[in-house]
Amino acid sequence: SNNNHDNVVKSYDYDDYENYIQDGECELCERYVKLTRHHLIPRSTWPKIKPRLIQAAPHFFDGDMKMVMKVLNFNSVPLSLSTSDLQSSSSVKQFLTHYTCNICRLCHKTIHERFDNLELAETRNNVEKLLEDEKIRKFCMWANRQKPRKKY
């Protein structure tokens, strides 16, 4: 596409926010719309986050969540993280690949405008943490009242 916001979009890891995956309910604004896949730990941060996950694995296996959080430098452990996700480098990559939520383009764009990718990875890595941000929550309440097919 040759629109004038291509250069803006390329400046951050927009996680396929242009790439439609299915129709359904946006996990943020709860409208029934075309959905995009948002990596809760953005792909651009994987080279930094993947080694931390591998380093945190022994503490995770021991159930020492304080150390896991310290090593990851996250404010919360990713909700679906399990011991099988931390068995090897390839299982960590699988986890990162599939640790996503399905949201509309409007919410997707807003999240990436509001937070940088490392902040998303470390402090906003689940839907609940995204919605704890007042600006995001207010935006989602506004978006919820918008007609789905409307262009913004």
Q: What would a concise description of this structure say?
A:
With 152 residues, the protein is of the alpha+beta class.
Query: Order of strands side by side in the largest beta sheet?
Result: 1-2-3
Rounded radius of gyration (Å): 16 Å
Shape call = elongated
Total helical elements: 8
Number of strands: 3
SSE string, helices as H and strands as E: HEEHHHEHHHH
Largest sheet: 3 strands, antiparallel
Mean pLDDT: 88
Beta content comes to: 5-15%
Distance between the termini: 17 Å
The structure class reads alpha+beta
Low-pLDDT runs: 1-12
Which range best describes the helical content: under 10%, 10-25%, 25-40%, 40-55%, 55-70% or over 70%?
A: 40-55%
Description:
The chain is an alpha+beta fold and 152 residues long. It is 47% helix and 12% strand. The chain contains 8 helices and 3 strands; from the N terminus they run αββαααβαααα. It has a 3-stranded antiparallel sheet with strand order 1-2-3. A hairpin with a 6-residue loop joins strand 1 and strand 2. The protein is elongated. The relative contact order is 0.20.
How are the SSEs ordered, and which strands pair?
Layout: H1 6-9, E1 20-25, E2 32-39, H2 46-61, H3 65-72, H4 89-98, E3 100-103, H5 105-114, H6 117-123, H7 127-131, H8 134-144
Antiparallel strand pairs: 1-2, 2-3
Task: Please supply descriptive tags for the structure shown above.
152 residues; 3 strands; alpha+beta; three-stranded antiparallel beta sheet; disordered N terminus
